[in-house]
Write a sequence for this structure.
């Protein structure tokens, strides 16, 4: 398995995809902050810039899934998966390796993008407003495991379905569609409602956060809220990793 992981790291570091992807994101966030500083008027402040991430923490999960898609889209079509399996590596080991490699790549890209976001915001925007840099920095440990769970689930769905678009659609339903349905259904079933509130899309919902130009109230402001975020993310990683191991083990048999 270690040889497979090393080969995957070699592959992604010697191809353009991840560099182009990360470079485009860095360029976009820098241009966004420059444009906001020049044309934003009352919004030309760091608070507005940071609020785009603080108010929408699910964007980290979305970008984690996008990273997986960038790295492994078309894995079946180009024969990479078939060649790897024919080399004696089990589907479970491939799944674990892809999760590790994708998470590492996503973490590096996230660090680069956040660094560019913060530096350009501090350089080109007025440092004022209710959303502070600490609100963004505190949000990173709150959303990291949730984003990791989204990434692992994307690896799983892409591996389970023949067509990549099907895997992406399933990811969208599981992470963004189903939580809303369960939340509304739970209004009539008390136990279901409490369970639905642990799902990330609902955990970060409009009733849990209030981030705007006049105030900043986030889920992770309190120790209890931070704990809920971490537990929700850790549970998601464990559940999707276990499902992946079980499903892909059957395919190996």
């Amino acid at each position: 398995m270690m040889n497979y992981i090393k080969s995957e790291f070699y592959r992604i570091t010697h191809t353009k995809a991840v560099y182009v992807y990360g470079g485009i994101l860095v360029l976009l966030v820098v241009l966004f902050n420059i444009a906001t500083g020049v044309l934003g008027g009352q919004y030309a402040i760091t608070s507005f810039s940071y609020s785009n991430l603080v108010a929408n923490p699910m964007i980290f999960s979305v970008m984690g899934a996008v990273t997986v898609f960038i790295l492994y889209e078309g894995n079946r079509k180009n024969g990479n998966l078939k060649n790897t399996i024919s080399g004696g590596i089990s589907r479970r080991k491939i799944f674990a390796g892809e999760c590790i490699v994708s998470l590492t790549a996503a973490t590096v890209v996230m660090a680069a993008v956040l660094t560019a976001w913060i530096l350009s915001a501090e350089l080109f925007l007025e440092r004022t407003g209710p959303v502070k840099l600490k609100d963004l920095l505190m949000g990173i440990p709150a959303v990291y495991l949730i984003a990791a769970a989204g990434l692992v689930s994307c690896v799983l769905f892409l591996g389970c379905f023949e067509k990549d678009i099907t895997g992406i659609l399933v990811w969208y339903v599981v992470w963004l569609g189903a939580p809303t349905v369960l939340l509304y259904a739970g209004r009539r079933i008390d136990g279901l409602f409490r369970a639905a509130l642990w799902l990330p899309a609902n955990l970060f919902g409009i009733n849990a956060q209030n981030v705007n130009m006049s105030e900043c109230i986030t889920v992770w402001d309190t120790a209890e809220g931070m704990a809920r975020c971490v537990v929700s993310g850790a549970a998601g990683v464990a559940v999707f990793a276990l499902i992946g191991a079980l499903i892909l083990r059957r395919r190996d048999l």
Remarks:
- The beta strands are 210-211, 216-217.
- The chain has a mean pLDDT of 89.
- The two ends are 18 Å apart (CA to CA).
